[in-house]
Amino acid sequence: MKHQGKLFFFCGKMGAGKSTMSKIVAHENDAVLISEDEWLSVHYPDQIQTFDDYIELSGRIKPFIKSHVQNILKVGTNVVMDFPANTINQRTWFISLCSELGCEHELIYLNLSDSQCLSQIEQRRIQQPERAHFDTEAVFHHVTQYFESPNDEENLNIVCVEKTAHT
């Protein structure tokens, strides 16, 4: 049987640096990078105005994404998914994607404090003004209430990345 690719995915609060890290991990692992933001903006331009819009439309693309990612993994190519794995339910979806194929996975957990994330969100608002309406402290706090840190019972292969104030 041909070697299958490995799936990389990310957990971290809003502003933790998941998208930035996904580009680095994709480059380091010769992987295909698949970005949820890109898929959503192409398929649903200007339709995401609220967090609830995001939840609904993200759910709509997941069946297509799952099939697409599994086909890439089957041919032996690594895949980096810039999709949040910030709740147990989201991580369960990633694990089902892998378990159906029997492929390896790695969850990269960006464990930053709220203040670190808010600082990075502020920088992102400056660098990407088109995101300023969504990248706010209020949205951060709303989204963070749903965040669930990964735990041992989930049987995940976790790489934890912690940033200090100097990194």
UniProtKB/TrEMBL annotation:
Keywords: ATP-binding, Nucleotide-binding. SUPFAM superfamilies: P-loop containing nucleoside triphosphate hydrolases. GO terms for molecular function: ATP binding. This is ATP-binding protein. It comes from Vibrio mangrovi.
